[in-house]
Each structure stands twice: as structure tokens, then as C-alpha cells.
Amino acid sequence: MTVDNFHMLLPSKVRSAGIFLALLALSSTLSSCQKKMEEVLVEKAIEQSTGKKVDINSAGNNITIQSEGQKIEIQGNSGVWPTDMPADVPKFSWGKIAAVTRAETPEGKNWSIVYENVSGNMAKEFESLLKSNGFKNVTTIINSGEGLGGVVSAEKEKLKVVLMTGNGTASLSVVKEP
Q: Which of 76, 96, 129, 164 could form an S-S bond across to 90 if both were Cys, CB 3.0 to 4.6 Å?
């Protein structure tokens, strides 16, 4: 190989490396846009079915959906009791929090917490916590002799609480009317 051939070959390799790097940068840009593209597609689907403008934002396991005075936040694998939960609602501390959903609408605010690895006699114990926090109209339906599963519902002023438990899982829903 002569020196002239080497000099001609060098720019060709540099050009090829440059093209490769440009394609690599473009593909990573496209893959990061892909998530945005998915959000846009879901937004369009919801907008077409509801006729309302929708904005979806996602980061990690969290998703926020906003539409004309309504907002829904979904926190997957949060493991954390919502800091904005009304103080009158007793903390359900049996099991592990798997997901938290918050919604704000003109009709009020609502929180839904899904638990896993739930054990113990929590239905009756949670009923006692609600009563000691001043909740009325407490209704409890136990579907097992040990009190491991069932439904507890209660009201206090503009708060409504429903706990559903069974098979190692639980779902707590809280609604606060405006």
C-alpha cells in the first residue's frame, strides 16, 4: 500500500466512523422519542374516544394524565403512603404498598392504594382505627372466620373510605368531596 492509497483510505474510514456515530446518535434519539410517541398515541386514542384534550406525562413508573380540570396520577411500585392523604384517614399498615393512584376532578379528590403481602386480622383492626378517628356509618363484612378478608366502609363529613381485603392483597379507596 502506498502512502497516497493510505491517505485516501483514511478519510474513507473516518467518514464511515462518522456515519456510524451519526446513525448511533439518531437511533438513541429515536428510542428516547419512542416513549413520547407512545404517549402521543395514547393521548390521541383517549381524545378521540372522549372528545376532550388529554395530556399524558410519564417518568419511570409514574404516569400523569390531565384533561379539562381532571388529573390522574399513577405511581407504580411507590411503596409510600400518600403525603397528601387527609390526616383523618388512618394509615393502613398491613402489607406492602404496590401502587398509588390519585385523581382530582370537579367532584373531589380520590386516592386508591393497592397492597400486596397483606397478612393478619386487618379488617376488624382497620374498622377500629376508623371508629377511633371519628368515622361513622362503619360497615364491615368479614368473609372468613379469622377476619383476614372482607370489606370495611366508613364516612366522616366529606370523606368516604372503603377497604377491600382478601387472598394476601388489599385495596384502600378514599374519596374527599369538595
A: 129
